Amino acid sequence: MLWRAGEKVGQYEIISELGRGGMATVYKAYHTQLDRHVAIKVMHQTFADDSTFLERFNREARIVASLEHPHIVPVYDYAEYNGMPYLVMKFVQGRSLKEILFKKPPTLEEIKRIMTAVGQAITYAHNKGVLHRDIKPSNIILDQDNVPYLADFGLARIVASGESTMSADVLLGTPNYMSPEQARGAKDIDHRSDIYSFGIVLYELVVGQVPFSAQTPLAVIQDHINTPLPRPSQINPEIPQQLEQVLRKALSKSPDKRYNSANDMVADFTRAVENSNVNVLAENRADLADESLAKWRSAYIRHMEDNALVNDDEDSIAQSVRNLAAPSIVDDISVRSPIQESVQANEFVEKPKIQSTTTLVRHEPNGRLWILAGVAIIILSLFLMVAVVLNTSNTFLAIAETIQDLEADANNTNSPDDLMYNIPKLPLNEAQTIKDSAPENPINYLILACAQYEDNDTNSARQTIKQGYDLATDKIRYLANAVSIADVAGDANGAMIFGVLLWDIAQPTTSEQGQLAYNTVSEFLYTKSLQAQEIQVSRANSEQLTELFGEEISQQLIRSQITRIMIVNNHIEMDRARLATATVRVWTEETYALPIGQLVNARYNLLENDTETAINQLNQLVEASTTPAWIVTIAQELITTLEE
How many CA atoms lie within 13 A of 287 on its CB side? Predict the structure, then answer.
C-alpha cells in the first residue's frame, strides 16, 4: 500500500516520496506540532506479512533509536500504520556522497574530514553492539553545511536480526561494498564486516573506482570472495605505499587481518596521507581507474588461464599481474615521486585479445540442427557499447546482441550466445513442408511463422508461434526468438504480446539465459511502449488475446506488472495524464520496486509536475549498483535535462 501526499500517518502529514528500495519506501513528511520535516521509512508489505517481523521490528527499532551521535541520522520514533511498521528519522537536506562522486570527486582534505566523521559514527555504533551491514556512499549524506551523516542503521539492523524471518532469504548489503563473509551468507558476521565496506568506500574515494565491479551482482560477489584486491598503486600511480597498506589491511579477505575499529583505520589513513608527499588527487581519477581496472582484470584472467595458478596468495598474484602490466605503472611507488609517476606512466601492455565466438543454431530444410560458429568482432563490440550509452538500440535482437557482447568483453570469455536461433527465411510452401514433416519440433513453427510474416499473414504467424510455444520445452529461448521474428517483421503489437509473456516467464529465473532474456525484453518493451500509439496487451484487446492464448494466459498478460508499466509509459509519452493516473493506481508495491517501474514512475511524477519526487527517484536509480545500465543512462539524461 502506497502513501499519498496529504495523507496523515500518526502525527505526520506525507509531503512527497523521497525514494524506494528493495525493502522500504522513504517519504518526506511534516510534524505539525513540532513544526519540523522528517523522513519516514516504511517497510514493504513482504516484511510486514512475516508473522514475527512486527515483534522484532519493535525490539530492534528501540535499539537503533538509542543511537545518539552527531554523525548518525537519528531515529525519532517508530510505530505502525494500517499494519505497516515505519521509522521516523531526521530529514537531512543535502546530497549523498554517491551524488558528489558522480559530479566531482572530493579533495584529499575533504576525504579526510568525511572519513573521520563517518569513522567515528561507525565506531560509536559498534561499541553499542550495532552493525550497519550496508555502508556505501549513498548512505553517507552531507547536509547543506557539509556535515556528514551515516544513514540507514535502522533498516539493516531491523531486517537482519532475528531467527525467522525474511533475512534468511535476503542477501543483505550492496554487492560492490559487501564483505566476503557477507557475500558467502555467513550468519556470524561481526563489526569487521562493516570495516571492509568502509574500506571499499575509502578505496573508491582515493583510487577513483570500487575494486570489484561486473555485469551482474553475482559476479561482483564472487570477486569479493575469490579475486585478490587490485593493488591501488597498480591502478593509480599517485597512491603512495603507506596509503596502499592501509587499504590492503582494511580489505583483507580474512576478518582477523583487518582493522579492529573504523577509528583505527581512519587514524592510519590520516598518518599515511601526512607522511607521504601526495597532497592532491587527480579530478579525473575515476576515468583513469576505470580503464586501469579493466586492464588489470584482463591481465589477471589471462594469467590465471595461462598458468593455472594454485597459490592464490595476494602478493604472489600481484607480482604475476605486475609482470603482465607496464612496469611504469606497477613498479614500487617509492622509486619515483608521484609527479614523476603520473608523467612517466605508460599504458598496460596487453596481449592480442582472443576473439570470442558465438554459437547459433540453424534449422535446415531437412529438419536437422547444426552448429554455426561465428566471430564476435571487437569493432562491433565497441560500436554496440556506444549504442548502449546513446540508448539507440531499439530492436530485440540488437539489444540481446549488445548485452551478450558487453558481457563477453567484460569477462574476456566467449559470448554467452545460448538465446537466439538463426531462423532461415524460406518460401511459404517450403516452410509449411518442414513444419508438416516434423510437427513435434517447435523450431519448425518459428520457421513457418517467419514465412507467414513474409507473406503478410500476421494473424496466421501469431497462431503458428502460439502452437510452437505449446510444444516448446525451453520456453524462454523459444519466446525470445518469437519476439525477434515478430519485431523484424514489423508486427510491433505481436512482438509486445510475446514479449510480455517472455518477461513473466524470465523475470523470476536466475539462469544466465533467463537473465539475458529478462534484461533484453525489459529494455525492448520500454522502448516499444514509447513508440506505440497504444498498448495492445490490455483489457480493451482481451478478446483477441483470449482467442490467441486462451482465458488463463490472456488474463496473465493483462495483469502482468510489465503490462501496467508499459501502459503508463505509453500514456505519459502521449501526454494522457488522466489515463496514466488511473493505471498507476492499480500498481502494486512489487511493480514500484522494479527498476523499470521506478523509472516510469519518475516519468509519471514529472508529468504531474512533482519534480522533487522524480529527481529523488532518478538519483536512487543512478546510485543503485544493481540498476541495469540502460536505465541508468535514461535516468542520468533526465536528471541532466531537469538541472538545465
Answer: 5
Q: Is the pLDDT of residue 596 over 90?
A: yes
Tell me if the pTM is above 0.70: no
- State the CATH number of the domain containing residue 102: 1.10.510.10
Which triple of cell numbers denotes residue 245? 597498506
pLDDT at 348: 31
Kindly state whether residues 324 and 375 are assigned to the same domain: no
pLDDT at 508 over 60: yes
30-48 per-position pLDDT tens digit: 998 899 999 998 887 766 6
Under DSSP, the state recorded for 16 is E
- Distances in Å between the Cα of 29 and the Cα atoms of 3, 71, 214, 594, 608 are 11, 22, 37, 24, 19
More confident residue, 533 or 331: 533
Rounded CA gap, 228 and 386, in Å?
Answer: 30
Q: Return the exposure string of 84-103: e unless at least 16 CB atoms fall within 10 Å of the residue's CB, then b.
A: bbbbbbbbbebbbbbbbbbe
Relative orientation angle of helices 314-324 and 285-307, to the nearest 10 degrees: 100
53 half-sphere exposure, CB direction, 13 A CA radius: 24
Cα separation values, 492 from 395, 497, 588, 598, Å: 10, 9, 27, 24
Coil, helix or strand for 38? strand
Residue 351 DSSP class: P
Q: How confident is the model at residue 562 (pLDDT cuts 50, 70, 90)?
A: very high
pLDDT of residue 72: 95
Query: Which string of DSSP letters, residue by residue, matches 558-620?
Result: HH-HHHHHHHHHHHHHTT-HHHHHHHHTT--HHHHHSHHHHHHHHHHHHHTT-HHHHHHHHHH
User: Nearest to residue 212, comparing CAs of 181, 195, 235, 188?
Assistant: 235
CATH number at residue 68: 3.30.200.20
pLDDT value at residue 13: 93
Residues 6+ apart with CB under 8 A from 293: 209, 211, 213, 230, 235
Q: Do 526 and 415 sit in the same domain of this protein? A: yes
Q: Of 604, 617, 636, 580, which is closest to residue 27 (Cα–Cα)?
A: 617
- In-domain check, residue 532: yes
Q: Which pLDDT does position 342 carry in this prediction?
A: 32
Distance CA 394, CA 358 (A): 22
Judgement on whether residues 297 and 237 belong to the same structural domain of the protein: yes
Query: What would the mean pLDDT of 356-370 be, rounded to a whole number?
Result: 29
Residue 27, helix vs strand vs coil: strand
Q: Is the pLDDT of residue 166 over 50?
A: no
Domain boundaries, position 122: 95-344
